[in-house]
Every structure is written in C-alpha cells, then in structure tokens.
UniProtKB/TrEMBL annotation:
InterPro entries: BUG (IPR005064), Bug_dom1 (IPR042100). Belongs to the UPF0065 (bug) family. PANTHER family: BLR1237 PROTEIN (PTHR42928:SF5), TRICARBOXYLATE-BINDING PROTEIN (PTHR42928). This is ABC transporter substrate-binding protein. Gene3D superfamilies: Bordetella uptake gene, domain 1 (3.40.190.150), Periplasmic binding protein-like II (3.40.190.10). It holds the Pfam family TctC. Residues 1-31 form the signal peptide. The keyword Coiled coil does not apply. It comes from the Bacteria.
C-alpha cells in the first residue's frame, strides 16, 4: 500500500480538499460546540469562605455567557495545593477550571514537594479581582483600637490566639507579616479555610483573624466583631473613615489577595479563548460588579483580564514571595 502522502499527492484538488475537510472537521466541530455540558470550577477552600464567595458569583455570570452551568466544587486541604494538583492532573478539555488566589504563588516556597508546577502545569485564563484584607478580633477582646491592640499584644504575646485558614493560606501570610511588623509572637491556630476560622472567631474560640473584605465587611457593618484596620496602604471605598494599619504605625504594611482563573495544561486555545471571553463579560455584569462592590473586592482592569497578564503576574509573584517566605523560615514541608 502506498504511503498516505503519495495518495494525497495523486488526488485532484477537489478530492484533496474534501478529504482534508473530513480530517480536520471533528476538531473544528469540537471547538465550535464547546462547551457541550456543565463546567466544574474548582475552589481550593471551604464553602462560605472569601474565595468561594467570589467563585460562586463569577460562575453564575460565566455560565450565562457560555450557556452552560458552571458548578463550583470545593476541594479543601493543604493550603490549596490538593485542589491545584487535582486540576493539574485533570483532563485538559476545558470542563475543569480553577479559581485560586495568591496562594498559587506562595506554594513553591511553602511546599518542598508539589504534584504540580504553578508556572508549568496550567493554562492561564485571566485575572479576576483583588481583595484587601482587614484585621479583626472577637467582640469581647479588651483592645478597642489598633494602638490598644499593639500594647495588649506586647503584654500578652503568645496568650493571643491568631486564627488562619491553614498552612499556605494568605491569612497565614498576613498573620506572619503582622507579627513580624509588631515584633510579637502569637499562638497560631490553623483551620481548613477562612470560613471555619471566621466561625471560630464569632464563637470567641480564637482572638484575632486577618481576613479578606469579602468575608469581613458584613461583620464590620453589623459591629459583631472588632475591627482594627485595613491591610492595604489605601483606605477602602466602602470604609472611607477606617484607617489602614500603615496609617496607624505599621509603615509599608501591604497585603491583599489577587485571584486568577486557570485550566489544566494542554487545554485547547479555542476553549481558553471562550473561557476568557466569558470571564471578561462576567466581570462587567452589573450583578457581579454590585456584588464585588459590596464585598470590597476590586475588579481588575481590562489589561489584566488576559491569559498573558495572568502568566506574567504569577511569575512576578512567585519571584516576590519566595525570598520573603524563606527569609521568614515559613514552610509546610
């Protein structure tokens, strides 16, 4: 039997065009039809936590654009690395996407053994929102202001229980930097997500928590927790009268959470393109904009909503946080 190339060379232009169309049409059809069934959006933290809140609002709006349901699935554990490993090893067909925050960049420095490489195991869809953090305390903790809290912390030290969302979480990073800046050492209490950590704070089982505005603004408005300040240098639009920690003496203190959307490495450019377009439309949806506004989340500018921008940002964040974490001797294994 002659080689396939010889057969094609002997065909008339019309027959050659027809055969080539048959060969490539399945791929074209698959790209045109995507998505044909629901998409899973994996969230690496507990339901009810700040990243979960962003995910559910985003999934709802992206589903409208894609004309398919986007189902949020919470896969918790190990500071988000279990979920990241799950997505990295998933079928690269565009039906499993991943919303993660700053923890994507800190994982290489925190974990000596990862099932994935944050920079090489994923396709990039785009950045989503930035979320400032706030320093909160249980309602009956004696200090009423941050200045009073600093004095109280220096006098009580490790008697203060500082909650976080588990190893590698941004709340842990924020708490570690806070202790360093204040020159104190608290007793840290890890939870599986900031949702459970906030529940413990509300129940007065822990004393302090550094958490995202997506979860804390309702409590600040209700006054059922004590609020000591914002962790970004700029005041929040939603809390114009609330001073930042930088203003209150922790000069240069700046911690916020950024979120990106990913898919498994090898996901087709066509699927990534459709997902990116759905992301861009979702970020402009009035319901999403209103929801983020109320939560204190800041939607990223259009130039950051691209795969290329997210890739460059992640590379820069890995390079930024790696030396910081190593210098602080912060690691998980």
């Amino acid at each position: 039997m002659p080689p396939h190339g010889d057969i094609l060379m002997k065909m008339t232009p019309f027959r050659l065009t027809a055969v080539l169309a048959l060969l490539v049409s399945p791929a074209i059809s698959a790209a045109a039809d995507y998505p044909e069934h629901p998409i899973s959006m994996i969230v690496p933290f507990a339901a009810g936590g700040p990243t979960d809140v962003v995910a559910r609002s985003l999934a709802n709006e992206m589903g409208k654009v894609l004309k398919q349901t986007v189902v949020v699935e919470n896969k918790t554990g190990a500071g988000g690395t279990l979920a990241a490993g799950y997505v990295a090893s998933s079928k690269p067909d565009g039906y499993t996407i991943f919303l993660h925050h700053t923890g994507m960049a800190t994982a290489p420095a925190l974990y000596s053994k990862l099932r994935y490489d944050p920079l090489k195991s994923f396709e990039y869809i785009g950045e989503v929102v930035d979320v400032p953090m706030t320093l909160m305390a249980r309602s009956d903790l004696p200090p009423n202001t941050f200045k009073e809290f600093v004095d109280y912390a220096k006098a009580n030290g490790d008697k203060i229980n500082l909650a976080n969302a588990g190893p590698g979480a941004v709340s842990q990073l924020c708490g570690s930097l806070l202790q360093q800046a204040m020159g104190v050492k608290f007793t840290t209490v890890p939870f599986q997500g900031t949702g459970p950590a906030m529940t413990a704070l509300m129940g007065k089982q822990v004393d302090v928590l550094c958490d995202q505005t997506t979860q804390t603004l309702p409590h600040i408005a209700a006054g059922d927790l004590k609020f000591y300040g914002v962790t970004t240098p700029e005041r929040l639009k939603q809390l114009p009268d609330a001073p930042t920690l930088d203003e209150q003496g922790l000069k240069g203190f700046d911690v916020k959470v950024w979120h990106g959307l990913y898919a498994a490495k090898g996901t087709s450019p066509e699927a990534i393109g459709k997902l990116n377009e759905a992301l861009k439309v979702a970020l402009k949806a009035p319901a999403f904009v209103d929801r983020m506004e109320k939560l204190g989340a800041q939607i990223v500018s259009e130039d950051r909503q691209t795969p290329e921008s997210l890739q460059k940002w992640l590379q820069a964040e890995v390079a930024k946080w790696g030396p910081v974490l190593k210098a602080e001797n912060i690691s998980v294994n």
